[in-house]
Structures are given as structure tokens and as C-alpha cells.
From TrEMBL:
Residues 12-198 form the YrdC-like domain. This is Threonylcarbamoyl-AMP synthase. It comes from Niabella pedocola.
Length: 202
């Protein structure tokens, strides 16, 4: 199902429809402030397994992120962070960044890896933020499979490719082609893991 949602003024009725689908274990493709993402409710184990199957990866080895509306869920899913790390997150988020932090015990068991880390993302995108607020907790998110990012900018083309694999594709306009910048904050120094859309000076 392809659902057009207004990127600047998301329709509450449509946002609720997508959130209800997530609550019921559905998978959605949705816009962010970078590329379109593949997401589900973080507490729906079968949906996480479906996403892992689509990407042909083990959930414990996957590079999933928790997409939040703001930093209010931080203490739920990440271990206590230093004041300097919190200031860093406040400075850069919302924005095109993923920050890797140590995972708390509240992270669903299916996602526990040897590293036991969690990627936290707060996209600067009104549709995503409205959806997460309606859902009441973060969305588990990952990139679409494959290397051809060009195919993943137009929601109609995305829908053609994935309509039989996902429940909803949100049309929030043409997406970007550059993913988020990933910063690992689990060590003594912050480490740039991937240079993406967000500016970062080491």
C-alpha cells in the first residue's frame, strides 16, 4: 500500500493508520532527513525477523537503529552517558546522524549482539517524528537492501520493488541519496564510522 503523507503537515489520520500497522507487527518504508528507511515497531519480534529476512541478515549482527522523535527515550535504550556525550547529541540532533551508544537491558533480546550497542537516530523529518509520537516509542530502522541508492529516492519506484514484502510505503516526496553520518560514542574518543550527510570534524 502506497500512502502519500504531506511532508510539512502530516495528516493525523494517515499517521495513525501507519502507527496502527506498526503496532500490529507490520513493516513500513518511510522517509527520513536522509534516505528512505525500512522500519517496524521495536517490540514486534516477528516484524524484526521479517526485516532481517528481507535484508538476508542475522538480527544479532544487523546494523539496526532506534529512530526516536527526540532524546526523551535515550535513557530507556542506552546506558547512562556522560554529560559531554549528551551535549553532543543535543547539539547534532535532530539531524542526519546516528550515534552508537552502549545498549541498556531494555533493548529487545532479539537485538542483543556481542558488542551490545544501539544506534540512536533522531531524523529532522516531520512525518517520522509524528509517526513515532503517535506510536509512543522508537521505530527499529535499517537501510533498504542493495547498493543502488538511486532506486530508493522515488517512493513510487520503492513501492513497485517492495509492495509484496512490506505493508506500507509512505510517499513523503523524493528522498535523499546520502545516508546518515555514524559516530561511535562507546569508547574514550568519539569515532567516525561512516561519513554521510551530516558534517563532522574529527
Amino acid at each position: 500500500m502506497l500512502i502519500p503523507i504531506h511532508p510539512k503537515d502530516p495528516q493525523p489520520r494517515l499517521i495513525k493508520q501507519v502507527a496502527d500497522t506498526l503496532r500490529e507487527g507490520g513493516i513500513v518504508i518511510y522517509p527520513t532527513d536522509t534516505i528512505y528507511g525500512l522500519g517496524c515497531d521495536i517490540f514486534q519480534t516477528k516484524a524484526i525477523e521479517r526485516i532481517a529476512w528481507i535484508k538476508k541478515i542475522d538480527p544479532k549482527k544487523a546494523q539496526f537503529s532506534f529512530v526516536c522523535a527526540d532524546l526523551s527515550h535515550l535513557s530507556d535504550f542506552a546506558k547512562q552517558i556522560s554529560n559531554s556525550t549528551f551535549r553532543l547529541l543535543k547539539e547534532y540532533l535532530p539531524g542526519p546522524y546516528t550515534f552508537i551508544l552502549e545498549a541498556s537491558k531494555q533493548v529487545p533480546k532479539i537485538l542483543h549482539s556481542k558488542k551490545n550497542t544501539v544506534g540512536i537516530r533522531v531524523p529532522d523529518n516531520k512525518i517520522t517524528q509524528a509517526l513515532i509520537r503517535e506510536l509512543g516509542h522508537p521505530i527499529l530502522s535499517t537501510t533498504l537492501p542493495g547498493e543502488l541508492v538511486e532506486e530508493y529516492t522515488d517512493p513510487e519506484i520503492i513501492h513497485e520493488h517492495y509492495q509484496n514484502l512490506v505493508d506500507i510505503v509512505i510517499d513523503g516526496g523524493i528522498g535523499g541519496m546520502i545516508p546518515s553520518t555514524i559516530i561511535d560514542c562507546t569508547g574514550a574518543e568519539n569515532v567516525l564510522v561512516r561519513k554521510g550527510l551530516g558534517e563532522w570534524e574529527e
